[in-house]
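Hi all, long-time lurker, first post. I run a small reading group and we've been trying to get comfortable going from sequence to structure in the token notation. Rather than ask abstract questions, I figured I'd post a concrete chain and ask someone more experienced to write out its structure so we can walk through it together at our next meeting. Sequence below, copied exactly:
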Amino acid sequence: MTEYTLYYATNRKHIGINRWRPEGYGNKFSDDGMENLRFGQLTLEADEKKIAKLLAKKLRGNGCGDGEKLAEYLTGCAKTARIDAYEEVLRADISDKAQPDAKLGSQAMFADLKACMEQRGDVLVFIHGFNTSWPDAVGSALALQLALNAAEQADPNRHVRVVLFTWPSDGLALPFVSYKSDRSEAAGSGYAVGRGFLKVRDFLADLHDRAGGAKPCGQNIHLLCHSMGSYLLQFALRRLDAFTPGSALPRLFGHVFLCAADVNDNALEPGQPLARVHEIADNVSIYHNRSDMAMVVSDYTKGNPERLGRAGAARPLLLHHKVHQIDCTPIVKGIVEHSYYLGGRVNADMRQSIDGLAQDDSLRKRVAVNNLTNVWRMVKE
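-- Answer (accepted) --
Happy to help. Here is the structure in token form:
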């Protein structure tokens, strides 16, 4: 058995009597409040040979990597993981900046991530979607990390470290009750993520100052929102805007990936909730699948308008030039129709973006749609 490590941030309530060494995290908000974040890392043991076999599995017309099965396996391993939350010494009644002796979990985790970045490692923040328990979230995040680093043609000298943000989710497949509950909790958690973004802003500003104005480490931080995670991002942007002076949001990420986004198909148009997402990143990629049954259910059983994650943007010409959308329908089949980001060519395509490959590079195996420069369709191999 081999040990694997994953960093995390959460506003879930811990399970067990020791908040710094919890047994896990539940489906309710922390007793400290929905906007209070706990930072930490976990270590789990898994069979390296089984992982390698799943990562190498060939998918029909969709490259390699059975990310769905890998996440399922790692979810089971997560139930016995050792969890170490970064301990904090902090008064809640005054600002942490007014406490010179404060000990913050965020600072401890950022110090560890800085060390990773100095070793040519990029960081990707992952926000999961609806109906996700703590073990599910860990399994998906670690599967994502392993798949990105095993992706075909990935830069062997650049390691991607995934940081999981996990929010209270019912973890129950009850179509109406748990969806409505999770959507409410996602909205509240969005403000917690916004606070996290502010911490990222301060972290990057500090690195920039220490580097004398140069790009710190030469690496990037990226963001991936899956399903309802994109709905949560809408509220994070609100919080970021409220605490950002001036008219422009800070550039935080190299790339933002919106996969199977459970938001309206006009969400990135001017005046809409995600209209300014391009301000926080160099590039934004929307991945959608017209056969995504989870999106169909969201449309028709819950009274939602057309979902961005199924049909793509309603009016692509209104998207900012930094935003690209990719139709995955031709290559995504079967049970992975909603979680296709975990493996195969979609995962490899994201890795190519992280490595800096141009959107129109032929290695991506895409074709332009209607001669538009920011709308793509993936083609079968």
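A couple of things your group might point at:
Residues 187 and 243 are 18 Å apart (CA to CA).
DSSP finds nine helices and 13 strands in the chain.
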